[in-house]
Write a structure and sequence with these properties.
Rossmann fold, alpha/beta, signal, eight-stranded mixed beta sheet, AB_hydrolase_3, hydrolase, 12 strands, AB_hydrolase_fold, GDXG_lipolytic_enzyme, 315 residues, 10 helices, four-stranded antiparallel beta sheet
Length: 315
């Protein structure tokens, strides 16, 4: 989830004091409307059109431009996958599906999607930006922000009867995306055994859900779990390697140690943790002035160490 105005409002509901309070007091970014059908050259629908209503369903999307972060979209009902491929002769055969965050109510398409994909492609990795289905929100932007903030606040506060922030269809879309890339691996110049995922916030939760819920053959070969909840889970015996990154001053998922990484380690599955001193939630490719700017270099080096870049030997 990008650190825009609606998320700051949610955080204000549940936190006070310290760095979190300073972040909440920051002036909220105001999203400006964008064309209803923002151009996404090369976007591929994940599923066949339902009775010829593909175009009409896509019209439900509401796009905005967030200062400093770029495009975001709400009310996605037609999931798509957009390839961002390396230059000719640069590809190493690895692929990563990129799942942006946004509380399952919006997607930070540039900040946690296309910008990430381009950095992967620059490193020879075929990237695919996943636009997954979302919880519907009001068409009016201000009303939508209020509803999103209320949902985030309720989910973070928790308590008896608190609704979980989730969208099962997002997991189904991620599984379908993995299936699509594997099926067309030859067309993309990709090794089917080296297709992973990287998800941010709600996208991280989606990637984790795929690992926990999908049959082994449909899981990603590896995954990046970027500022997702650190709660422990039951780790499959054959779970893929995990790259876990979060800022220690994350306002949405306050530090609680790293139970999820510990669970991976106890299951004797590969896991690496990057706990940045500063960066807040939603730092994307990195917040200037913090070591979060090293994220993609570290993720790339980790992929190499695991043997997913082809020329390196797995250790």
């Amino acid at each position: 989830m990008a650190r825009t105005g609606w998320m700051l409002a949610a955080l204000a509901m549940v936190q006070t004091g310290g760095a979190a309070a300073q972040a909440v007091k920051a002036k909220p970014a105001v999203a400006s409307p964008a064309p209803a059908s923002m151009a996404e050259p090369g976007a591929i629908p994940l599923y066949p059109p339902a009775r010829g209503k593909q175009g009409k369903a896509a019209e439900t999307e509401i796009w905005n431009i967030n200062p400093g972060e770029g495009r975001s979209v709400r009310n996605v009902t037609v999931p798509t996958l957009t390839p961002v491929l390396p230059e000719a002769g640069k590809a190493n055969g690895a692929a990563v599906i990129v799942a942006p965050g946004g509380g399952f109510m919006m997607l930070s398409m540039d900040h946690e999607g296309y910008k990430v994909a381009r950095q992967l492609a620059d490193r020879g990795i075929a990237a695919f930006v996943l636009k997954y289905r979302l919880i519907p929100t009001p068409a009016d932007q201000k009303e939508a922000m209020r509803e999103m903030a209320a949902r985030i606040g309720a989910a973070v506060r928790g308590g008896p009867g608190a609704a979980k922030l989730e969208k099962p269809e997002a997991t189904a879309d991620a599984i379908a995306a993995l299936r699509m890339v594997r099926t067309d691996a030859a067309k993309w110049g990709v090794d089917p055994a080296r297709i992973g995922m990287i998800g941010f916030s709600a996208g991280a939760m989606t990637a984790l859900n795929v690992v926990l819920q999908a049959p082994a053959a449909e899981r990603p070969a590896f995954f990046g779990y970027i500022y997702g909840p650190q709660t422990a889970v039951a780790v499959p015996a054959d779970a893929p390697p995990m790259f876990n990154a979060i800022a220690m001053d994350d306002q949405l998922f306050p530090t609680m140690g790293f139970p999820i990484a510990e669970a991976w380690h106890k299951a004797k599955r590969p896991v690496e943790i990057h706990a940045y001193q500063k960066g807040y939630h939603g730092f994307g490719l990195g917040r200037p002035g913090t070591t979060t700017t090293l994220l993609m270099d570290e993720f790339h080096a980790w992929m190499a160490m695991q043997g997913f870049l082809g020329s390196q030997t797995k250790k």
